[in-house]
Amino acid sequence: MAETVAVGLDASRRSLRTTRGTLRYKSLVLAQGARPISLPSLPANMVWRINTLDAWLGLRAQIGSQSRRIVIIGAGLVGCELAEDAATAGHDVTLITQGPYPLETLLPSQAGMVLQQRLRQCGVTIITNTTVDIVKPSPAGKTIILSSGNKCDAEIVISTIGLETNLRLAHMANLKTKQGIIVDEATLRTSNPSIYALGDCISLNGQTCRYIAPIAAQADAIAHSLLGLPHAGYQHTSPPIRLKSRIMPLELRGTPDPRAEWDVVEATPFRLLMQQKQGGIITATLKA
Ligand SMILES: Cc1cc2nc3c(=O)[nH]c(=O)nc-3n(C[C@H](O)[C@H](O)[C@H](O)COP(=O)(O)OP(=O)(O)OC[C@H]3O[C@@H](n4cnc5c(N)ncnc54)[C@H](O)[C@@H]3O)c2cc1C
Fold first, then answer.
1. Which Pfam families did the record assign (predicted)?
2. What value does the mean pLDDT of the chain take?
């Protein structure tokens, strides 16, 4: 059922209301993904969010073939990759982050500061430790007012501040949620046994994991359960996280603990290798 949106869920009647009528189900799988976080300070009519192909094509069309002044808000994986690509393509790029350096939720400061330096060398202006109070129209296009009191102008503003699960359907069905739809780690059943969930919309052990890699194994476990076939159960492992960058390709493996210390194993101008250990066992590795 293409171009159909699920708009209502009544778990007691096992019925899903859609824009093309109501469907009854024996089992239901929620695979609704996540949507860009929307803040009143970043109005949708002035700030791009690039979570869909349509949005990306719209942004590409607005950028056109000229060099543009682009402000990117949020220095996570998407923001950093986009900033590098746009600067390399000849645009005047400013990257705004609330952290002390880009990728601050993933990287130890030693690695984050190297990334920051390389992005700057590539032409990206980076403004750290600040949030955006408001984006408003201006003769130059848009003016971004920062919490620091400073401001900057842009023709194009892009928000890459992260994703959130739309919990509307889950709440209608009284499913338990915490950032995402809570599922059992082995069965991927929600708190209602006839409803499963997978992918970006779920919360596993209280955490979301919004990467492509785990989804096939999640779908496999659910398919076996739906067909009544034996299965050992889904076993979650953190997928490798990669920054797809030419100036600093990096890979993070394991389960990094943002509060734990990192040990430097090797640090040269060409290679950075860091590790986290717990009880003498390596729990996370960073290669850049
Ligand atoms: C810019 C960007 C770059 C990324 N890069 C990487 C990467 O390099 N590596 C990586 O591992 N991951 C990456 N990701 C994340 C990856 O895309 C997601 O983890 C993956 O797409 C999640 O799949 P999903 O099926 O859970 O959700 P989605 O792919 O988001 O699919 C959800 C679908 O459900 C539909 N839907 C939602 N609500 C309803 C409703 N009520 N009714 C009907 N349909 C509905 C949506 O329209 C959509 O088609 C990236 C994401 C973005 C936005």
1. Pyr_redox_2
2. 96
pLDDT tens-digit readout, 61-102: 999 999 999 999 999 999 999 999 999 999 999 999 999 999
Which of ligand 1's atoms lies nearest the C-alpha of 210? 19
Per-residue buried b or exposed e for 191-220, using 16+ beta carbons within 10 Å of the residue's own CB: bbeebbbbbbbbbbeeebbeeeebeeebbe
Q: What is the pLDDT of residues 198-231, one digit of tens each?
A: 999 999 999 999 999 999 999 999 999 999 999 9
- Summarize pLDDT for 175-200 with one digit per residue, the tens: 999 999 999 999 999 999 999 999 99
State the closest ligand 1 atom to the C-alpha of 200, by its place in the atom list counted from 1: 26
| 172 ligand 1 Cβ < 6 A | no
CATH numbers and ranges of domains, the chain: 6-34+165-227 (3.50.50.60), 47-163 (3.50.50.60), 241-287 (no CATH)
Contact 274, 265 (CB under 8 A): yes
**ipTM of the modeled complex:** 0.98
> Is there an atom of ligand 1 within 6 Å of 212 CB?
yes
Which helix (H) or strand (E) is 56 found in, with range? helix 53-63
State the distance from the centre of ligand 1 to the C-alpha of 64, rounded, in angstroms. Answer: 26
Contact 199, 170 (CB under 8 A): no
